[in-house]
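example protein:
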Amino acid sequence: MHAKVLKNLQQVLQNVLFNNHNIGQSLKVNYIISLCSYYDNDNMDTETSVELKKLVDNALDYELLDRLIGFLRSNEYHKFNWEPQFQHELKQKVGLHATYNLNVDLSNIISEIETIRNSINNRSVNISLLISFIAKRAKESGDLNKDVEEND
């Protein structure tokens, strides 16, 4: 296997197997689906296959959930409370961009997030089973123990 491909594979395996919290849920779900396919999902047992199918059905919900939560996180930095009576304490002239004056009603987004979470929970997936399948197949193929040469 080419060193660059092996390095990418090992990075994805680490993100999935060792619970990297720096990646979003939707990316982790995509990694799990891809790894299950890479490790020959045609030969997986029925229980694992059913869980993979449920995860594939939920993949769009995870993507929507990550995007909506990201929107909420980015929106919290746009809140700016301007107190004109403190203007005399500022040493330089300060102006505000018009977008900071918008009031956004986030209740619909929060409601949608709750709906998506409930949908995911109602079709709960045994992700641990899928991760175990990936770990077993990665170990069997030796992908967890291969050294990556840095001569790309």
About this structure: The chain has a mean pLDDT of 78. The chain is about 60% helix and 0% strand.
